[in-house]
Amino acid sequence: MKKNIQRLNLYHSLVFFLIVNIFTVIIDQNKNLIISPIICLLLILTIGISHGSLDNIKGRKLLNILKIDNIYFFYSSYILIGLSILVIWLLLPTTTLLVFLLVASYHFGKEDTEFLANNKLTSNQIFYFLKGLLVVIAPLNFHFEETINIFKLLFVESEKFYIYLSLIESFKIIPIIFFLSVFSSFYLFIKNFRFINFSIFLDFFSILILNYYLSPLLAFTFYFCFLHSIRHSFSLITELDKNNFKNGSILFFKKALPLTMLTIIIYLIALFYLANYFELNDAILKVIFIGLASLTFPHILLEYFLEKNEK
Question: Is the pLDDT of residue 311 over 70?
Answer without folding.
Answer: no
